Amino acid sequence: MALYKFDEILNDLMDYFILGDPDYLLQYKIENNLPDDLLTEFTTEETGDQVVEEGVMVPMIGIENYPYTVYFNLSDETPELLKQGNEVQHQRDGYCLKVVNGRIYLYTIPYLRDFTETKVELLKKYKHATIELPNGWYSVAILAGLTKQLFKVETVSGEIEEFESMEPTFEFVLKPTAEKPDYTADFTYPFRIID
């Protein structure tokens, strides 16, 4: 089953997550002669809209400051957030993503302030949710909400106790497509999860 799970993914105290191939974004920046400060560029110029509509990255706003469980779902099975016992709060599709360098990452917005080759290498070394993917186009649906997670804790006496907790979760359902899917999403939609 092509389902990948990551625990304790943080948003670096900023209310954004970015999904994409950072090497491709760097390539796009160089080819389009964009400045290193992509954060200012994307928030003040139309290039921010273009980069999203062209599938270079998928930005998500309204991200609360929690540790998140993150799923990348490439299966045809029911998404985790739609399974019984879990609580989906957001379900949005219409995103497109192009993979050029065989891997995608869920990373945070501070990297865009100084988006250089050095910064991209640092991004790839830090603990992020990341998976290898064949190059090409993907349609992306984003689900967000709470999933039941099992935790193990060692007690003072050294025993292991298990407990369940509802954890803030993002799930990315990725489907390969032969050509660029139509971009129909609203990238101003806030993915605020109520815990």
In short:
The protein has 195 residues and is an alpha+beta fold. Helix content is 17%, strand content 42%.
Description:
Strand 8 and strand 9 form a beta hairpin. The chain has a 5-stranded mixed sheet, with no helix packed on it. Strands 3-2-6-7 form a 4-stranded antiparallel sheet. The model has no long low-confidence stretch (mean pLDDT 92). It contains 4 helices and 9 strands. The longest helix is centred in the first third of the chain and has 10 residues, at 22-31. With 195 residues, the chain is an alpha+beta fold. The protein has helices at 22-31, 38-44, 47-53, 117-125; strands at residues 3-9, 16-20, 57-61, 68-73, 87-99, 103-107, 129-132, 136-154, 160-177. Helix 2 (38-44) packs across helix 3.
What's the gyration radius in Å?
Answer: 17 Å
What is the number of strand segments?
A: 9
Q: How much helicity do the residues have? A: 10-25%
The whole-number mean of residue pLDDT values reads: 92
Instruction: Please report the distance between the alpha carbons of the first and last residues.
Output: 29 Å
Reading the helices and strands in chain order gives EEHHHEEEEHEEE
Please report which band the strand proportion falls in: under 5%, 5-15%, 15-25%, 25-35%, 35-45% or over 45%. Answer: 35-45%
Q: Identify the overall geometry.
A: globular
Low-pLDDT segments: none
What is the structural class? alpha+beta
Number of helices: 4
- How many strands, which pairing sense, and closed or not: the largest β-sheet? 5 strands, mixed
